[in-house]
Every structure is written in C-alpha cells, then in structure tokens.
Write a structure and sequence with these properties.
Largest sheet: 5 strands, mixed
Shape: globular
Strand order of the largest sheet: 1-3-2-4-5
Distance between the termini: 47 Å
Number of helices: 5
Oligomer: single chain
Number of strands: 5
Structural class: alpha/beta
Order of helices and strands: HEHEHEHEEH
Strand content: 15-25%
Length: 144
C-alpha cells in the first residue's frame, strides 16, 4: 500500500477513534497492548471492536457512549479498531474465541471471561436505544 493511502486512512479514522477515547475508552493499538491489558484485567471491561462502517458510526459508538453513563457500568472501557489495527484486533478476539469475529461488536468481560457479546447482527438494523438497553441489561447482571 502506498504511504499516501496509509496517511489518508489514518486521517479518515481519527475522528472515529476520538469518539471513543474522548468518552473514556482506552485504545489498544498493538498486540502487546492488548495482551498487557488482558493479563492484568480485573473487574469488568467493556470492549468495543470499532469499525469504519455506518452501523458503527450511527449505532454502536453512540450506544456504547450512552451505556457507559449507566450507574452500573463496567470498571474499564477499551477499544480496538478492526481493519486498522488488525493484529491488535485479532489478538483481542482470541480472548473470546467461542464467538465469530464481527465488526463492529461489543464484548463484556469479567476478568478475562466473556460474559456478554453483542455481534454486528444485534447492532445493524437496530435502534441505538435497543443496543443501549441490551448493554444496560448486561451491566445489571454482571457489573454490580
């Protein structure tokens, strides 16, 4: 790939990254960052598998930002960017091997254990409020 293309993509996705980091999500961009985070994971963590698609922009990112404000929200919020930080995303997905890769998607972990997963199929063609409620229900069960 050309350097011009790589730079264009970096500039294109930066606002998509910022939307989550400005809401308190820690971005994990390398496999080492993912492994380090997961090796030390305590409490509950919401993992957003970010994406450039429209359902990430109009549904998933707004929903996780809103759900993060819930009183029983997870202890930690992290994100990896599918299609951009490919190796980091691949490594994160090894921590929830029993589910098909999906972008965007949202995972709730208790320590290193996957306790709830929202695949693209439960994001795409759904209302943001439905996604928020899905997450809030999971928080009520696993984050008290």
């Amino acid at each position: 790939m050309s350097m011009a293309y790589e730079e264009y993509m970096r500039q294109l996705v930066q606002p998509m990254r910022d939307e989550l980091t400005e809401a308190g999500f820690k971005e994990l961009r390398t496999p080492e960052e993912v492994d380090e985070y997961m090796e030390n994971a305590e409490g509950t963590t919401l993992v957003m598998i970010n994406s450039v698609c429209g359902c990430a922009a109009g549904l998933a990112r707004p929903a996780v930002r809103q759900a993060a404000q819930h009183e029983n929200a997870p202890d930690h919020f992290v994100t990896v960017f599918a299609g951009q930080d490919k190796v980091a995303t691949s490594v994160m997905r090894t921590y929830f091997m029993d589910v098909e890769p999906s972008s965007p998607s949202i995972a709730l972990l208790k320590g290193k254990e996957l306790v709830h997963f929202v695949p693209r199929e439960e994001i795409e063609d759904h209302e943001p409020e439905d996604i928020v409620q899905n997450l809030v229900n999971a928080f009520e069960t696993h984050c008290k």
